[in-house]
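JOB MANIFEST
job_type = single_chain_structure
chain_count = 1
residues = 184
[input]
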Amino acid sequence: MSKAKEGEGKFPKNSKPLVAVIGIVCILAIAFAVYWFAIKDSSKEEEPTTENTGAIGYESDIVLEDAKDLNDKIKDMIKQVEEGQMSLELKTQANSSNGKDFVCYLANSKKNTYETYLVITLDDTNEEIYRSGLIPIGGRIEKFTSKKELETGRHMATLTYYQVESDQKTVHANVAVEFTLEVK
């Protein structure tokens, strides 16, 4: 056997501070690792709930009608939606050379189930400048005369379609769209 040389395998005499620093670094590394895993577990994403999504949950004590009644109500709602739909068929600009007589395309689509009438109002004054008579389903207006003579230029207006019940008095639904009147 060979004898170890003196000092071999042992720390130098002045290495105590070095050992202390290495020990402190190891303790800090372990503490950091424990802290890191503790934070990582606590920051896991929560499952969506009413508290963190803002959604309104269902009431817990709900009484539902029987399936047949519920199905009938759903069918009625679908029918009401279908009847309330309005297909618009138009060009969103009407043109005039004299400020009174306008060329346009405003139709009551064949897809609709009600007769309609139209009202045009100027956006800046809210003044009504045109009101049509009843337009049958599939009918259209290709020209109209304004109640007010408009100056040369562009005038922004609102065109409102009114669907009318069969009594020709009761408004079933209405839809308003932007409309431009161009006078050259």
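[summary]
The longest helix spans residues 16-42.
The two ends are 117 Å apart (CA to CA).
exit_status = 0
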